């Protein structure tokens, strides 16, 4: 009996020590995992988050500033070139509209002392009306174009900010290959395979 007790005692001690080793290794792995999670969380907290709201606000206040916030610096000259073109078209069309409007007013003022500078160039009053309406329409379209360009600037900044962390992998591919379609009669075609 003493031999049986003596043999079972070391086994019991070994089993207990195995359990404590297993528990300590489990605790160490949990602590390591928790430390890894805490480090990852700390890195995310210290990493500056890119805000779509901020980019939209910046582009609303000053066109092109949202693009600078998104680090798309090449778009800033494009935006200002578009605004410059719309401003140019507005200025040209507005000056010509005012010119023909003034010519119509001078022609219809019923004052005999008024000198009509456009009498020889445009003897027909209907021509002056058509030119005035044409340049007014183009001036108004320039204003609409300016407003659309402004809105496009804001939308572009918002979309770029939302896609700021979008990862485009090098593994994107597309393959074209002939395909035999099994059916009662032989058919062939072209298939497309996309890999993401």
What does this structure look like?
This protein has 196 residues and is mainly alpha-helical. It folds into two domains: 1-47; 52-162. Helices cover 67% and strands 9% of the residues. It has helices at residues 2-46, 52-61, 65-69, 75-107, 125-162; strands at 173-181, 187-195. A two-stranded antiparallel sheet has the order 1-2. Strand 1 and strand 2 (187-195) form a beta hairpin. The longest helix has 45 residues, at 2-46. The model has no long low-confidence stretch (mean pLDDT 78).
Give the structure's gist in a few sentences.
With 196 residues, the chain is mainly alpha-helical.
How large is the radius of gyration?
39 Å
| Terminal-residue CA separation | 70 Å
Q: Quick check: average pLDDT?
A: 78
The number of distinct helices, counting runs of at least 4 residues, comes to: 5
Largest sheet: 2 strands, antiparallel
How much of the polypeptide forms β-strand, as a percent range? 5-15%
Please count the beta strands (DSSP E, at least 2 residues each): 2
Q: Residue ranges: pLDDT <50 for 5 or more in a row?
A: none
Subunit organisation of the chains: single chain
Order of helices and strands: HHHHHEE
Q: Given the helix and strand composition, which structural class is it?
A: mainly alpha
Tally of distinct domains = 2
Helix content: 55-70%
Sheet with most strands: strand arrangement: 1-2
What overall geometry do the principal axes of the alpha carbons give?
Answer: elongated
């Amino acid at each position: 009996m003493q031999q049986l007790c003596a043999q079972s005692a070391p086994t019991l001690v070994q089993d207990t020590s195995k359990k404590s080793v297993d528990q300590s290794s489990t605790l160490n792995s949990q602590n390591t995992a928790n430390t890894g999670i805490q480090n990852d969380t700390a890195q995310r907290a210290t990493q500056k988050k890119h805000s779509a709201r901020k980019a939209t606000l910046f582009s609303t206040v000053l066109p092109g500033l949202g693009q600078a916030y998104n680090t798309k610096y090449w778009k800033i000259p494009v935006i200002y070139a578009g605004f410059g073109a719309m401003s140019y078209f507005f200025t040209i069309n507005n000056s010509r509209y005012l010119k023909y409007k003034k010519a119509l007013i001078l022609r219809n003022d019923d004052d005999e002392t008024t000198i009509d500078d456009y009498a020889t160039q445009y003897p027909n009053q209907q021509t002056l009306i058509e030119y005035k309406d044409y340049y007014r329409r183009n001036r108004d379209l320039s204003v609409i174009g300016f407003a659309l360009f402004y809105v496009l600037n804001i939308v572009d900044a918002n979309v770029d900010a939302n896609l700021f962390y979008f990862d485009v992998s090098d593994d994107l591919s597309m393959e074209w290959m002939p395909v035999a379609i099994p059916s009662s009669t032989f058919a062939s075609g072209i298939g497309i395979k996309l890999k993401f």
